[in-house]
Amino acid sequence: MCLSHLRSSLWLPRPPDVVFDFFADARNLEVLTPPWLRFEIVTPEPIAMQPGARIAYRLKLHGIPLRWDSEIAAWEPPHRFVDVQRRGPYRRWVHEHRFEAQGGGTLVSDHVRYAVVGGALVERLFVRRDLEQIFAYRREKLIETFGERVGGEPGRRHRTTTGPARSGTYRPRQNGILSTWPGKIRFGSINWLVFASKIRG
Question: What CATH code is assigned to 4-200?
Answer without folding.
Answer: 3.30.530.20
